[in-house]
Amino acid sequence: MNFEKEGIVSVWYSTADYASIPDSYFEEDEQGLDQWAKNYQIISYDPENMETNGCETGCAPTKDIIGPCSWSGSYGEAVIKKIEKIGDKKISWLILLFDFEYRAKKTHIFQDEYVNFVGCFPFDIDANQLD
Q: pTM (2 decimals)?
């Protein structure tokens, strides 16, 4: 499925310690897809549109992790609220895929063993970072 959609950011997060995740989870195959993408039935994405942020060990408040991300002033608060609704106040890291609208209702995949899908949010390239 092709999930490209301009102006939308898809967000995933983890509470797993980054160091505990095997390198194989992030290794790309011949098609340039890693285990994460395969787990979510993502057949292609532009790596230039991906951003990740997190802490080396343990967890931190979601705002501390999403704040430094690109244009987070336009979607950060909504992401924080949704993660809290899922039940987590602290996270270890995030995956952001810009100009991409992942549709979990189509794939029926909302989480794998390391990351949870948060949702899709509009973003504004004129926005500042979340303070």
A: 0.94
